[in-house]
Amino acid sequence: xxxxxxxxxxxxxxxxxxxxxxxxxxxxxxxxxxxxxxxxxxxxxxxxxxxxxxxxxxxxxxxxxxxxxxxxxxxxxxxxxxxxxxxxxxxxxxxxxxxxxxxxxxxxxxxxxxxxxxxxxxxxxxxxxxxxxxxxxxxxxxxxxxxxxxxxxxxxxxxxxxxxxxxxxxxxxxxxxxxxxxxxxxxxxxxxxxxxxxxxxxxxxxxxxxxxxxxxxxxxxxxxxxxxxxxxxxxxxxxxxxxxxxxxxxxxx
Length: 253
Description:
Blueprint: H1 2-12, H2 27-39, E1 53-59, H3 66-75, E2 80-84, H4 95-100, E3 103-107, H5 120-138, E4 144-145, H6 154-162, E5 166-167, E6 172-173, H7 183-193, E7 199-203, H8 207-222, E8 226-228, H9 230-236
Parallel strand pairs: 1-2, 1-7, 1-8, 2-3, 4-5, 6-7
Helix pairs in contact: 1-8, 2-9, 3-8, 5-6, 7-8
């Protein structure tokens, strides 16, 4: 009963001021933007600072709250990117396609390991198996990859590049991976870093993230920004070569 009441509250709180006719970049423009960054062999942690778009990203799903998060985004005419764990798709087989309808589905490995501790052939298997699972679920292979725990190395980066995956991190951490995180603290963490070109890290496996999302979307709206997927962000305003991203995570060797 508590979950039903929470979901009802969340859906009622979705901002209604988002325009239903919001236009997003074409799939072709998104693919070109991703390909251009792949050619630079770069890792992306933010978009350019000149537009009005921000990218919400959700890791570690799908899970029991993913469908409601998708519904909140759909009602707000907002897009996002979902970095899915491949072995979870068997438990929620229809959610990857639902996610693709409100943005993009990315690769977050098959079982969420620390990739830098694995031999290269297992890194490849983790990514390739998830590519196949997402393609089977959505009809399209992911263009994006996010390494668990932001752990990566030149060796793991080479595997993702070989598979044609653009590696994406973030520059705003919502802090919703903390056990029993408070929704108001999640919203404040996003508010502090929110700016044009920001890529926000969230997780769609927690009820507190679902609770915080309408308020995050409201903040985005009142700052005259809009929520898009990562490929859409890159198509609208791609980061310049050598551009730094505030608060971007450290990692790699």
